[in-house]
Design goal:
11 helices; Arc Repressor Mutant, subunit A; Tetracycline Repressor, domain 2; mainly alpha; transcription regulation; 245 residues; 66% helix
Length: 245
């Protein structure tokens, strides 16, 4: 049986000594220990050394606190990766994608708040729109139309987020003792009924697994398609250039 979430007890604060910033910072500290799912107002009060009513004064329910945590995560989160460069669009976009994935994979709290909880939130979109604009501009300079540049970056973003979220859900299930039948663990197929499936599965390939192999294969497919679009656009533009000459 899983142990209930607990928080380290601090000396009790004086009444009125807590503020929203302290509460949010403490919530991040506590979430690192017990996870976003197990974060609760009573646990947070114990962690901060205040009565739970002091927290409810600023955040009437857990969802309000999670909204504030998400806003802070979105405001402070910056991908540790160089911008997508037009002159080296393929490698720089691949590096950007790998850095995004590495950052989220290494921080479950960011993943839970930004990718899972706020995946469809308008504020999540707005928080990164300047970075997306720069990436799309570089892809247009590299030879894609604005529409294809947008779709390419969007596909990379969805691929990264999908890979991270699937891995995060797998980790949650495994922690809960439900991971034995996950696709990331399973070798599927038999030599008699599905020999090809059994062969590649035994070699480490996984259907639906959010592993490095599947991530890199999918990323390569997106980049290959973008490269083909750029090449096709270059070829179609060449006759026009010659006629102008």
């Amino acid at each position: 049986m899983a142990k209930p979430a607990t928080a380290a007890k601090r000396p009790r604060r004086e009444r009125g000594s807590i503020n929203p910033d302290d509460i949010i910072a403490g919530a991040f500290e506590l979430a690192e220990q017990v996870s976003i799912d197990n974060l609760s107002m009573p646990l947070l009060g114990k962690h901060l050394g205040v009565g739970v009513t002091s927290i409810y004064w600023y955040f009437r329910k857990k969802d309000d606190l999670l909204n504030a945590m998400t806003d802070r995560a979105l405001g402070q989160y910056v991908f540790a990766t160089p911008y997508v460069e037009a002159a080296d669009w393929r490698e720089s976009l691949a590096t950007h994608a790998r850095a995004m994935r590495k950052t989220f994979m290494g921080n479950p709290i960011l993943c839970d708040l930004i990718l899972i909880r706020s995946a469809l939130s308008p504020r999540a979109v707005r928080a990164g729109e300047q970075e997306v604009e720069k990436a799309i501009t570089s892809l247009v300079e590299a030879g894609l139309s604005a529409e294809d540049a947008f779709d390419t970056y969007s596909a990379v973003s969805v691929h990264v987020r999908g890979s991270v979220v699937l891995h995060r859900l797998y980790e949650k299930n495994r922690a809960a003792g439900e991971g034995a039948h996950q696709l990331e663990d399973a070798i599927i197929g038999t030599a008699e009924s599905t020999p090809l499936l059994a062969k590649v599965s035994a070699e480490g390939h996984r259907i639906g697994g959010a592993d490095e192999r599947n991530f890199e294969f999918g990323l390569g497919c997106i980049l290959d398609h973008a490269a083909a679009l750029i090449e096709a656009g270059t070829k179609s533009a060449a006759p026009k250039s010659r006629r102008k000459g």
